[in-house]
Structure formats: C-alpha cells, structure tokens
Amino acid sequence: MALPKVLVLVLAGGKGSRLELLTETRAKPAVPFAGVYRLVDFPLSNCEHSGIADVWVSVQYQPQSLSEHLANGRPWDLDRTTGGLMMLPPFQGSERGGFTEGTADGLWRQAELIRQFAPDALVVVSSDAVYKLDYREVVDAHLASGAEVTMVTTEVEPDDAARYGIVQVDDDGRVTDYAYKPDEPATTTATNEVFVFSPAETLDRLEALNDTVGEDGLEDLGNHLLPAQTKDGLARAYPLQGYWRDVGTVESYWQAHQDFLSAEPPIDLDERSWPVHTRGGRHSAARVLAGGNVDGSLVSGGTRVAGTVRGSVLSPGVIVEEGATVVDSVLLPGVHVRAGATVTRAVLDDNVVVGERATVGGDGDITLVGRESTVPDGGEVPAGGRLPEPERS
C-alpha cells in the first residue's frame, strides 16, 4: 500500500515583532536557539525523521537571513532532484499576488500551487516553537478520522492561555469549540500551530470564506477558517505527548533556554533516532581557560571562557574574559564580554560587545541587547532594558 502524498507548508513569513530586537534584521525562523541551532531546524528535522520530502517554506520578512540558512536543504535530506525544499516568496502577477496578511491569507495565496501538487494531506506548521513530532503519525490519524482539520494540541499554563488558540475536546477527540486568543480561555488546551488539513475541502472553504469575510480578509487560520471547520464538526484534536514550548516572546525564548540547562533536558537534541539537524560552520573546540569556571551551561564550539559562566547558553565564537561574569543569560554568536563586566538574565544578540566593568541586566525582567551594539566601559543596561542595534548610515 502506497504511503499518502504529504506536503508540509512551513509558514515563515511573519515579522515576529514579539521577539523585538531579535527579529529586527532577521526572520523569526532564523533566530538562533540552544547555541548552534535555528528555530526553523525543529520543523525541518521533524519532516526529515517523519519521512516527508516535500517541504515548502513561505517567506516574506527579512527572507535573506532564512534563505542563507536553508540553502538547498541538505542538512534535512531535502536536496532532491524531484521534490525536496522549495521557497515561496511573495509574488506579483495575479489577484493572489502581494504580501500576506496572516497565515490563512498566505494559505489562500498559495492555493493554486497546492492544488497542482495534489497532496493527500497538507501539514501547515509555524516555526517559532521547540518540539519533536512525527508528522506522518498525525497524518495517518487525520486520514483515518474523516476530519477536515486535525489540530495538534498541548497543555499550557493558565496565565499564558490567552496567547493561543484554545479548544474544547470531547471524549472521542472531536473539537467542540475553538477560540482564537480569547480574553477568558475556557480551557488550557491550546493548538500548537501544527495542523493537518484535507487540502481540497480546506481550500474550497477558504475560497468561500474569502468571498464573505469583508475588507479585513482571511487573516490568520484562527480568525475564520478553524472556527468554521469546528462549527461544522470537522475538527479533531491530536494531543502532543512530550515537550513543546512557544518561543515567540523574549521571556519565553529565554525560558526555553533555561529548560535545556537541566541535567535531563526536555529534548535530547542529539538523540540518535531523532537528532535535530542544522546548517552550521565549523568551529574549534570550546576552551575554558585557566581560572575560567562554567557551571550548568551550554557552551558551543569556538567559545573562549576565562571568567565565570553559570546557567547560560554560549553560542559559537563567544568570548568571556577573565573577571567577567555571565549568569542566567543567552549569548548569541560572536558576543564579547570584557574583563570585569557582569551580564545577568539577559539575551545578547550577534556580535555585542560588553565593555570592561559594564553591567547588563539584573534581577527582574529579561534584558535585551541588539546585534552589534556596544555597552561602553563602565556602562549599564538595567534589568528589563533594551539597547537597540546601532543605526547604520
């Protein structure tokens, strides 16, 4: 029996404004994670290990940062003569041309290409979460159910539920109610931005909705499409067993890194049966120099530590000089913390320089420093502060 024909559409076009300075000059899926990875590596690795070779990535905002990372798709076995990785940039020349105005709108704009491809199942995923999932298992459950959409769900904290699409599910797995970012969530069961659609029925429904939604358009999947499918009794839930964390805000991005510093991290990124792959350069071994001290941290290749690092993630090429202290922070590639400086509960973007005896962050909200910024010798960026990247002439 032939396997069903599956197409994965990775929605990577959003601006990612909730990540603030981290997405000013890069697409959200290209944001580094856990030292050597990018956020888009997680859905692409899921595709690889699920045996799905047809993957389209819809790009829009800062596409060059993502295109450089994806290249020909080789790390995820997507460099193929037939099928494989395909980029979908904005286009002109038809009524569906132009920039997308939400995830459902983006799906509508690519409808003709999807119909031509004629998949048995369409998997639509975002790229701002950290998780492992066999998409093909979800596809099999979807096709067996007769549903028009299967929503992968997870449990979230009550005070965080209003950020997500929230569902109510009956004992048979049917979604009986869907609310998109509700002010008063009825449950803590959230959709985690992985959906399996029956393509023909879903695209037909999008066409009909597009004729009725008015000037605001189709917007996101949760605005019109998913509520309509739920109302008609055609939505099913697929609970995700295991770790999932949205990293679409500065606070959640920082917290996700803290999750991976435990003695038993929630996901083994090097698991032999399901490694997370990435496209990266070669770096020398990390060096902890005489007098350097590293405790409970992730230290990537090419780093040099002569100071003290605790509870932090150091990306490739980071330097922490003698007498400097880095605590509970995330340092992206090329950050240089000079002698006597202190960095606490902060995220420092690419190539930031923290001057001698400078202080960045402290107890309280997460501090964020934009790429290639310099904190002068003796300077201070207070807890919860923002130092944007320098303007370029």
From TrEMBL:
Enzyme class, top EC level, equals transferase
Where the record annotates domain Nucleotidyl transferase, the positions are 9-261
Q: Where would I find the Glucose-1-phosphate adenylyltransferase/Bifunctional protein GlmU-like C-terminal hexapeptide domain in this sequence?
A: 292-363
InterPro entries, sorted: ADP-Glc_PPase (IPR011831), ADP_Glu_pyroP_CS (IPR005836), GlmU/GlgC-like_hexapep (IPR056818), NTP_transferase_dom (IPR005835), Nucleotide-diphossugar_trans (IPR029044), Trimer_LpxA-like_sf (IPR011004)
Q: The organism sits in which domain of life?
A: Bacteria
Any single GO BP term: glycogen biosynthetic process
Q: For this UniProt record, give its keywords in alphabetical order, as a comma-separated list.
A: ATP-binding, Carbohydrate metabolism, Glycogen biosynthesis, Glycogen metabolism, Nucleotide-binding, Nucleotidyltransferase, Transferase
- GO MF annotations for this entry? ATP binding; glucose-1-phosphate adenylyltransferase activity
Q: Which PROSITE patterns match?
A: ADP_GLC_PYROPHOSPH_1
Q: Region (Disordered): which ranges?
A: 365-393
EC number(s) on file: 2.7.7.27
The family classification in the record reads: Belongs to the bacterial/plant glucose-1-phosphate adenylyltransferase family.
Name of the featured protein: Glucose-1-phosphate adenylyltransferase
* Organism name: Modestobacter versicolor
Classification of source organism: Bacteria, Bacillati, Actinomycetota, Actinomycetes, Geodermatophilales
